[in-house]
Amino acid sequence: MIELEGLTKRFGTKTAVDHLSFQVRPGVVTGFLGPNGAGKSTTMRMMLDLDNPTSGTVRIDGKHYRELQEPLKYIGALLDAKAMHGGRSAYNNLLCLAQSNRIPASRVGEVLDLVGLTAVARKKSKGFSLGMGQRLGIASALLGDPEILMFDEPVNGLDPEGIHWIRNLMKALAAEGRTIFVSSHLMSEMALTADHLIVIGQGKLLADTSMADFIQQNSRSYVRLRSPQREQLLDALHANGFTPVEAGGGTLEVDGATTEKLGELAAENGLVLHELSAQRASLEEAFMQMTAGAVEYHAHGTNVHGADGQGVTAPPAAGPRWGDTTKGA
Ligand SMILES: Nc1ncnc2c1ncn2[C@@H]1O[C@H](COP(=O)(O)OP(=O)(O)OP(=O)(O)O)[C@@H](O)[C@H]1O
After folding, report:
1. Which atom of ligand 1 is nearest to the CA of 51?
2. Between 82 and 168, where is the model more confident?
3. How far is the CA of 20 from the centre of ligand 1 (A)?
4. Is 7 in the pocket of ligand 1 (CB under 6 A)?
5. CA–CA separation, 214 vs 198, rounded Å?
6. Strand partners, 89
7. Where is this region: Disordered (predicted)?
8. Domain for residue 114, yes or no?
């Protein structure tokens, strides 16, 4: 278990991490998400005592990192895959780490095997590709067979097979009851890997929730409609209190409705539908909403339908980018 309490880091006037408090529990993969520059790496560095907090604390199984005897046996981390000594072989890099943590040398061969680097174990790591470097970093994290594992953007540089492998590895490690904490700015990746989510933006906690609840609470569900009798359909929708949104190509989107309700409405009005489908916004959209604040989807719309007051609301041209400061605006 990792516990953060009021963790804060300032670099001069820049607050990189802002009063973060959360727990990372065993037995699940916890995703640590945020846009570039949100403060993920800084938080992880403080968890590992590589940076001093300005204020607040991090506890690993109730202790400060520096109080841990042979920390690699408690917590393994992949932070910067390039941190290895390039002039040493993969095997020797790991052997040095093992020796300084009283880990038997036999474990080096085991973890090299686990990450698929046995064939290049004696090669100098400076010649490694990005993906091989990631695998070597993961091997070093696994060396002490720790109960807690932290990975900062572990799929960086991995090919599709490697990405699949690391995903399954993290899930398998969590299933063994370990605490797995993995950062990413890739929402799609987290959706496939994480059971629990911690989302930060501008160093602040935005969400601490199960993946299922996050999607449920943050993604928008709506119905998509297309009809050759678009004008009549708009009239019928407005007459029944719906606010259709223009989605391009003659398609309309309606929030707060079911396909059953809108199908019946079309039938009652004798309207032909070419499309009637329930939609749920992707996780990516959920993140956009969360980090950009409640995008005022309806409030900033543009009336594109005409002067009869029965306009459709156009969606915003483009959502704010990750890291914008408009949360809650
Ligand atoms: N040593 C430092 N000195 C000054 N500013 C720093 C330092 N380290 C990080 N920062 C700033 O703190 C903020 C958080 O950076 P951090 O690297 O933790 O974010 P991140 O979420 O890991 O981003 P990314 O996904 O791009 O790696 C950024 O604005 C960054 O520029």
Report:
1. 1
2. 168
3. 15
4. no
5. 10
6. 124
7. 306-329
8. yes
Strand partners, 11: 14
Predicted confidence (pLDDT) at residue 328 exceeds the cutoff of 50 = no
Tens digit of pLDDT for each residue in 204-229?
A: 999 999 988 887 777 678 899 999 99
Q: What is the mean pLDDT of residues 63-90?
A: 81
Residue 193 and residue 267 in one domain: no
pLDDT for the residue 109:
93
CA dist 190 and 176 (Å) reads 20
Residue where the block lists tokens 């409705």: 257
Q: Write the secondary structure of 193-239 as one string of H (helix), E (strand) and C (coil).
A: HCCEEEEEECCEEEEEEEHHHHHHHHCCEEEEEECCCHHHHHHHHHH
3-class secondary structure, 98 = helix
- pTM (two decimals): 0.75
* 234 close to 244: Cβ distance less than 8 angstroms: yes
38 lines ligand 1 (CB under 6 A): yes
* Total number of residues shown for the chain: 329
Domain boundary among 164, 187, 217: 217
Predicted-complex ipTM score: 0.96
The residue behind tokens 């990746």 is 189
Nearest residue (by CA) to ligand 1, atom 2, is 11
Q: CA nearest 176: which of 155, 146, 196, 140? A: 146
- CATH number, domain at 264? 3.30.70
141 three-class SS: helix
- Which residue, judged by its Cα, is nearest atom 3 of ligand 1? 11
- Give the pLDDT score at 219: 67
The residue nearest atom 24 of ligand 1, judged by CA position, is: 36
* Ligand 1 atom at minimum distance from 45 CA: 18
| Separation between Cα atoms, residue 164 and residue 184, nearest integer Å | 15
| Average pLDDT rounded to a whole number, residues 13-23 | 95
The tokens describing 160, both together, are: 């599709």
Interval between CA 40 and ligand 1 midpoint (Å): 8
Query: What mean pLDDT do residues 255-262 have?
Result: 93
